[in-house]
Write a structure and sequence with these properties.
By secondary structure, the protein is α+β, with helices and mostly antiparallel strands. It is built from five helices and four strands; from the N terminus they run H-H-H-E-H-E-E-E-H. Strands 2-1-3-4 form a four-stranded mixed β-sheet. The radius of gyration is 35 Å and the shape is elongated. Keywords: Protein transport, Transport. This is Flagellar assembly protein FliH/Type III secretion system HrpE domain-containing protein.
Length: 202
Amino acid sequence: MSSETGFSTLSYPALRSVAGETRDDSARIAGHAAGYAAGLREAEERVAARIAELEAETAASIAHGRARIDLAVAVLDSAAAALDARTVPVLEAAGGALAEGALQIAEAVIGSEFADGAVAARSALHRALDSVDVGLVRTVRLNPTDLATLGPEVLAATGVTFTPDPTLARGDAVTEFPDGYLDARIGTAVARVKTAIEEARS
């Protein structure tokens, strides 16, 4: 019988730190949430920047188009003033001819501006919502091609509902309210001017 003592290696089980795992899980969740929130903020900033860019482009195009149209309206006003100031038949005839010529010029300028589909669409949108309370607007009817030209971002930024109306020409618009509507069609505006000229000459 041997008197030597034998030794063996003892193995101790590894104990998991529940608190440490909980902290790791919390850190991962917090990191994921922070990354998601940062991504949302970046997306919102990009959308806001794009909307601002589109609004600036729209404002510039409308300003250019309105300057041309304002010039035509100024010519019409001048013609109407000449018509009102007539004192003799010769001047009356000259005033009538001037008014007719001014109207033809105005129609030509408007037609030239609206040959550009983007300008026509933006002008229609501007006239439909200019000086109106958008909270009272039930819907704005526009030509389907104009709606497509404006795009969903520009339309959404207005805060109103739009309805495609194929009976409207490019550049025309009708704003509907619960108790009436605003006729923003170009043809209607020209007809009003013609009526005013005819009444002034009679």
